[in-house]
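User: Last request for today: this protein with iron/sulfur cluster, please.
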Amino acid sequence: MDKDPFYSYGSYLKQRYGIPAFRVGIDAGFSCPNRSGGRLSHGCSYCDAFGARAMYQRTEGALSDAVDDDLKADIAEQTEKAVRFLKKRYSAEVFLLYIQAFSGTHAEPDRLRAVYDYALSLQNYSEFIVSTRPDCIDRDRAELLASYKEKGLDVWVELGLQSAHNQTLKRINRGHSVEEFEEAYRLLQDYGIKTAVHLIFGLPGEGLKEVRETSGYVAGLNPQGVKFHNLHVPYNSKLYEDYKKGLIEVPDTGQYLEYVITAIEMMPGKTVVMRLTCDSREDERAAPKGFLKKTEFYNLLRSEMIKRKTFQGRLYDKSLI
Ligand code: SF4
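Assistant: Here's the final one, the structure of the complex with iron/sulfur cluster:
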C-alpha cells in the first residue's frame, strides 16, 4: 500500500491514541454574532439558517451563568445518543467532545465555563474541540479554553477564516477581516491551544489563484490543523439568490480536486488535514449536485496525488514563517 500523500485526521488520531477516536458533536445552545446580536445580519451568505440544531431561543448566550435544566437535559440526551451509537457501530473507546453548532465561544466566559464543564462531565473525553469565529475569541476566552489543558484534555479550536482576501470576506458577509482572524489565531497559539483553520474553496470571485494565496497565507501561520470545504449553496441561504441569477459558479469535483491538491502541497507536513469536503444534504442544496461523497473524494484525492507523485508540503515555503 502506498504511503499516504497527506497527513489525514484519521492518521493523526490513530498515531495519537493507537485506536480510532470519535467525535461527539454537541449543540450547546450558543448562537452566532453574525446572525444575531444587533448586527441585523443574515450571516455569511452561504449560511443555512436551519443547518444547525435550533432547539433553543438563541439569545447571545447572555442568560444566566448557570446552565438551565432544559439545556442540561438536551446536552445529556445528545451525548447519550451519540456515545451509544458510536459504541454500537464502531465499538468506540476514545471520545472527543466537539462543540460544533454556530459559534462555540459566543457567551460570557462564566456561562461558557458552566456549559463546557457540564458537557465534559458526561463522558470520559480525551479532547475538547470548539468551533468558533475570530470575533468570539479574546484573552478571557483563550484563557478559559487553555485551562482545560490542565485537566488533562487536548484542546483544539476550529477557527473560521474561509478566505485570506478581505474583499471576499466582505462579499460573503463574514463579519470579520483577515487581520481580526490573525489576532484571534495568534492569541490561541500564545495560549498553546491547537488551532485548525477553516477554509472554503470556490467562494464567489475566487479561483485557483486565490486558493493559492489563501493557502500560502495559512501555511505561513503553521497551524496544527486545516479543514477544507467546497462551496455549497443551500436553498435557504442568501447565496442562493445570486446562484439563481447566474452570478456565481460552484466548483465541481474536478475543479475542487485541483484546489485541494494545491492547498495540500502548500501546507507544512505536520499540519493535520482534518477535513476535505463540506457535508450537507443533497436535497437541501442547489449546488453542487452529484458531488462525490466524503470517502469517494478522499479516495480520488489520494490516488490522484499518488499518480502525480506529489505530497503534502511539496510546495511549502518555510521562508513564510
Ligand atoms: S459564522 Fe457560521 S453560523 Fe455564523 S453566520 Fe457564518 S456560517 Fe452561519
